[in-house]
Structures are given as C-alpha cells and as structure tokens.
C-alpha cells in the first residue's frame, strides 16, 4: 500500500513493453531475442517486466547474479544471461544452481569456468571485443577460448557475442567494421551469434544473428540519435507524472528558485510541480525543457530543486492547483527531456529513484 499523498508516480504500461518486444522480434524474424532488463528493467521494475513477458520472451539478460536471483525467486523460469558474466569464481556455483547463462569476457572468467565443478553443464557466451574496447576477448583469442571451452566436459552450450559502440549512428561505418572484425574472429567456426542491441536491431539487419538483445526499445524510446519515439512504431512504457502544488503570479524582475537562474521578464504565472532531482529528474534540465500540464506543453523555468520544479504557466489561464503534470511519457518524449538536459534516455529511466512509486497498467 502506498500511503503517500505526494502526487508523483511513474505509470508503466506493460502492454506497451509487450508491443515493443514483439516489434523487436518482427524486425529480426529469424532471431530469438533476450529482453534486456538489467538495472531493474531500466527503472521500470524487472520483476513486473519479466512477468509481463514471461509467456513470449525467449529469455532475459541482466548484469549481475543478484539481479538474476531476484527474477528466479519471483518464479521466472526462462533463460537468463549474465551480461558481464560472474564477478568472482564463487558465483559460478550460484549460476549453476539457478540455471544462469554467463558471458565470458576475460581470461580470468575462462579459467574460473574451466576449474569449476558445476552440477549441470554451463552455457557460456564468449564475448569478443570487436572495437568497443571495454570488455571482451581480443578477436585473435576467440578461437583458442572456443577450443578450451569446447573441450570442457561441463560446458554444454557455447555462443559468440559482441557489442557495438556506435550503432545509434546508422550512417557511421564503425558498426560495419565491428561486424567484420567479429566475423573474421569466428571464421570457420560453427557457432550461434549475438550482436545487436536495440539500435542495431533497428538499423543493421545484417547484424541480427541468432540472438538479439533489445534493451532501450522495449521501453519505447528510440535508440537512434536521429529518430524520436514519436515517429517510430515504439510505444513509450513509462509516463512520469506529478501535479501542480502551487500556482502563483509573479512580477517582472522576480527571480525564480536557487541562484535566480530565471528572472521573470514580464508579469508571469508560475507553477510548481512535485518532482525534483531526488526523484531522478535531471538537475541539468535547461530553461525551456518541456513538460505537459493538463496535456498541454509548458516549459521549465529556473533550476531544478531536490523536490520541486518551476514551470511557466503564463499562457495557461486554466491551470489550477492539483492539475496533472507529465514529465515524460505519452505526451513528452523522454528523448526531448534528455536532449534538453545534456543526458540520454537511458540515464533518465534508470535514474528514477526509489521514492517514485511504480504503478502498473496492462491493457492486455
Ligand atoms: C545493455 C546491453 C544491451 C541493450 O542495449 P540497448 O541499447 O538498451 O538496446 C545489449 N547488450 C549488452 C551487452 C548490454 O550491456
């Protein structure tokens, strides 16, 4: 039960997430798709998402054993991949007991798997660094790792994966370069492949492989730099909404909020909405960042505070205390808020803080 009367909440449309997952599958019809629900499902609630997708997802991907165990303890039986593998050899035991597949991105992880004595054979996804230069085996080390794990009696299934650095820029040649580096590393080896994040699912069909890994697109935001979710077939899953807790008329010359960043340039009507950076709203939102009041676009003026933001309601005669304010979602694309705050949608979604109640809706 939520006893708070503070009007802030994030409505999550589970039917939108299912729609977006199906769309990802339609774009890559020959591939299976791991729904990436790391970081508490990009802030949307991993358990609720996994349940909403339980009947149709081919599997899930998360960052850590802790995230995976939360899903297993909630009754999720589908395949789960640990995207960074295990962080210590002791975790292999947990992965074994709860049936988790793991990425192998380093020599150390490979040695841990070889030395492990699991009760059931393990599934390993060998990660090749095709050019992101973050984690992954060097391309020239792939064949040897494949050989070692292939001879390991307690490794049952092997896949090869890689991750793109610039797939959100469809015109940039780097993704094609990464595909070629990956394919050269795998030359002559029959193995299932996984390359595509959301952006590559949308923009690089030649990288769909056998398993895709959609993350951001499940939540309805466009992963492509140039495309807004408005113009795509994706449906926003999260609508972050609050309400006006103050509406006042100020005079020309009155400064608003900390530091007086905004000064009224004429008599202005100013509203305050109950949300701030402690809720995950970006503190760097500039003057002019859009919000919707009663479904109509308005703009932020003045610095974002810990628990409040200030809005220009001068042209909204009808705005009243208690009126709904959407921060992002069905009316205001989260991409616009991100752009206006020098951040990315990923950070907005994962930054929604624990004090924001998640309210689930499912139209089936
Ligand atoms: C997070 C992640 C994804 C999903 O990326 P999106 O851009 O959200 O689609 C895919 N693969 C790996 C390895 C990841 O870490």
What does this structure look like?
There is one protein chain. The protein has helices at residues 14-27, 38-42, 46-53, 65-73, 91-97, 107-115, 142-150, 174-185, 198-203, 334-339, 345-351; strands at residues 9-13, 32-36, 59-62, 80-82, 100-104, 122-127, 155-161, 192-194, 211-212, 238-250, 255-256, 262-263, 268-273, 290-293, 296-300, 309-312, 324-328, 358-361. It is built from eleven helices and 18 strands. 25% of the residues lie in helices and 23% in strands. By secondary structure, the chain is of the alpha/beta class. The chain folds into two domains: 14-222, TIM Barrel (Alpha-Beta Barrel), CATH 3.20.20; 238-361, Lyase, Ornithine Decarboxylase, Chain A, domain 1 (Beta Barrel). The chain has an eight-stranded parallel sheet with strand order 8-7-6-5-4-3-2-9. A six-stranded antiparallel β-barrel has the order 10-13-16-15-14-17. The longest helix has 14 residues, at 14-27. A hairpin with an 8-residue loop joins strand 15 (296-300) and strand 16. The mean pLDDT is 96. The chain is elongated and about 75 Å long. Pyridoxal-5'-phosphate (PLP) is lined by residues 36, 38, 83, 163, 197-199, 213-216, 223.
